[in-house]
Amino acid sequence: MFKTVLFPIDQSREAREAADVVIEIVKKYGSRLVLISVVEEPDKDTSSEEVMASPETVAQLLESAKSMFAEQGIQTETIERQGIPAFVICDVADEIEANLIVMGCRGLGLTEEGATESVTNRVINLSPCPVLIVP
């Protein structure tokens, strides 16, 4: 059912919590697991804490996640890209023919404007495959 699962990761608590769901899905369906992290350029409206701006930070994060999944007996592939996270995630999902994207949910607030600008919301609207959001 879920032959290829794409798991976008960042340094958020929500991504760490979503990893447990990814482990269950991958083990249950024998899925191929692809981890992706996006190096993004900060803009004037984004704090440095919210931005994955360093390639070294992203590489270290991917290596750490890969080790964590290996401890669970799950082999992973890793992809590091640069760009706007939501667009990159959806492009990669299309490239690797992902059957599912699993993401942690990060709220930007309860305003309609904040919700429409979130990476999660953009991925939901642009994804070429189903998206599972882990609260």
Describe the structure using short key phrases.
135 residues; alpha/beta; Rossmann fold; 5-stranded parallel sheet; 5 helices; 5 strands; 21% strand; globular; Universal_stress_UspA; Universal stress protein
Account of the protein in words:
- The protein is of the alpha/beta class and 135 residues long.
- The protein has one domain (4-134): Rossmann fold (3-Layer(aba) Sandwich), CATH 3.40.50.
- 44% of the residues lie in helices and 21% in strands.
- It is built from 5 helices and 5 strands, in the order E-H-E-H-E-H-E-H-H-E.
- It has helices at 13-29, 55-71, 85-95, 112-117, 119-126, and strands at residues 4-8, 32-39, 76-82, 100-104, 131-134.
- A 5-stranded parallel β-sheet has the order 3-2-1-4-5, with helices on both faces.
- Helix 3 packs parallel to helix 5.
- The longest helix has 17 residues, at 13-29.
- Residues 108-113 have low confidence and may be disordered.
What is the residue-mean pLDDT, rounded to a whole number?
A: 87
The tally of domains stands at: 1
Helix content: 40-55%
Order of helices and strands: EHEHEHEHHE
Instruction: Count helical runs.
Output: 5
Beta content comes to 15-25%
- Using the 3D structure, state the CATH architecture: 3-Layer(aba) Sandwich
Most strands sheet? 5 strands, parallel
* Overall SS class: alpha/beta
CATH H-tier superfamily: HUPs
CATH top level assignment: Alpha Beta
What is the first-to-last residue Cα distance?
22 Å
Q: Looking across the biggest beta sheet, what order are the strands in?
A: 3-2-1-4-5
Radius of gyration: 14 Å
CATH topology: Rossmann fold
DSSP strand count? 5
| Unreliably modeled segments | 108-113
* Gross morphology: globular
